[in-house]
Design a protein that fits this description.
Helix content is 68%, strand content 4%. By secondary structure, it is mainly alpha-helical. Strands 2-1-3 form a three-stranded antiparallel β-sheet.
């Protein structure tokens, strides 16, 4: 059973730790501090709707959400790690490792004569299992040999990238079945105004030349990531696994005294992080139709950390939720999209992300009971 001291850092208690925290939390300032990311997102939507042409449209919003499928999964991975007070810098390259592994294995299975559906399934499943190996190694190195998470995962950052480049030879792996991209880029609804509504796929008779006339609504990727986030959020907020995760981040000593197998749980956390990175890599294959290694300039892991912190998680552990991390992803996504549509040079994106990250950490330090 988790002690009250250790569990008090959980999401339900984070904003109610003490009478003064509760009273100030209900004030206007408390509401603003707790939800500053949501207010900032609303401000950006209003601003860019005036400065960016077609920013305020269903198509643009849908495209932004669709393109964040991978960042949502990586932010979810980082959320679990950061709540425990750790950091996983390897998820970006683990994602690339899973992507090229999935594509290479699919080619092997197809070459062996397996049907396309089985080749896709087995290649995807095997790639996710391969991606979990770096997470297992990270967890063992951190818990058994007491290597700081920053160093351990940075080492795996390079190892995973080197293995991925060895598998693909430095080039994306192409020649995969068309069914992959059709699944990864499919929509729930296809609507031709005044003519028809089609579910899951456009009618066979509808010509590709007129595809721009269709309203394509609710991408499969959005449904997929919402389902994953909902399941993970339930585990984090309602399950024993989640309670132990918050307890370790709140006070590792108290967690040990409460009888929690801290080392074993941390290993599971890093394996889960790698699993989600692998899932992101496999889904990237479905989206692009090729196996992509991660480039050094992509910085997926840094943007994932930024999204989690902007969403209200504390780098000191014990605080954070998946839905708030998803909100952080949206803040970064709409910031980039709005600046791009408004014609602002792209390097300002990095400046803006840096400023937001500093603001988020400052808010967490100044108002630990409100944020």
């Amino acid at each position: 059973m988790v002690s009250d001291t250790a569990a008090s850092r959980g999401p339900a208690a984070g904003s109610a730790s003490g009478g003064s925290g509760r009273s100030s939390g209900g004030s206007a300032a408390g509401v603003l501090v707790r939800n500053w990311a949501a207010f900032f997102l609303l401000f950006m939507v209003l601003l860019f709707s005036f400065t960016g042409r077609n920013f305020l449209s269903v198509v643009n919003f849908q495209n932004v959400l669709y393109l964040q499928t991978v960042p949502f999964l990586l932010a979810a991975a980082e959320t679990f790690v950061i709540i425990t007070g750790g950091l996983d810098l390897s998820i970006g390259f683990v994602m690339g490792l899973a992507s090229v592994s999935a594509a290479a294995l699919m080619q092997v299975f197809l070459g062996a004569g397996l049907p396309v559906p089985w080749s896709i399934f087995l290649g995807s499943a095997a790639a996710i299992l391969i991606a979990m190996v770096p997470g297992l190694i990270n967890g063992i190195v951190i818990t058994r040999f007491k290597v700081p998470p920053f160093i351990a995962t940075m080492g795996m950052w390079g190892i995973a990238n080197g293995v991925a480049l060895k598998i693909c030879g430095g080039f994306p792996i192409a020649g995969l079945p068309d069914r992959l991209s059709k699944l990864g880029n499919g929509y729930l609804l296809y609507v031709l105004p005044g003519s028809f509504v089609s579910f899951l796929d456009k009618p066979q008779w509808f010509p590709d030349a007129r595809i721009r006339e269709l309203w394509r609504l609710v991408p499969f990727g959005i449904i997929f990531v919402l389902a994953v986030l909902a399941a993970l959020s339930f585990v984090l907020r309602r399950g024993r696994f989640g309670r132990h995760t918050y307890a370790i981040g709140g006070s590792m000593d108290a967690a040990v005294r409460s009888g929690i197998a801290v080392d074993r749980h941390l290993v599971r956390i890093y394996v889960l992080s790698a699993f989600l990175a692998g899932l992101a890599g496999v889904f990237n294959v479905f989206q692009t139709g090729v196996g992509n290694y991660t480039t050094f300039s992509a910085m997926y892991e840094l943007f994932a950390v930024a999204a989690v912190v902007i969403g209200g998680a504390s780098l000191f552990g014990g605080k954070g939720t998946l839905w708030r991390s998803a909100l952080g992803v949206l803040v970064l996504a709409f910031l980039e999209n709005g600046l791009d549509i408004s014609g602002v040079p792209p390097f300002y994106r990095y400046i803006a992300v840096g400023v937001l990250l500093v603001v988020a950490v400052t808010i967490d330090k100044l108002f630990p009971d409100l944020n």
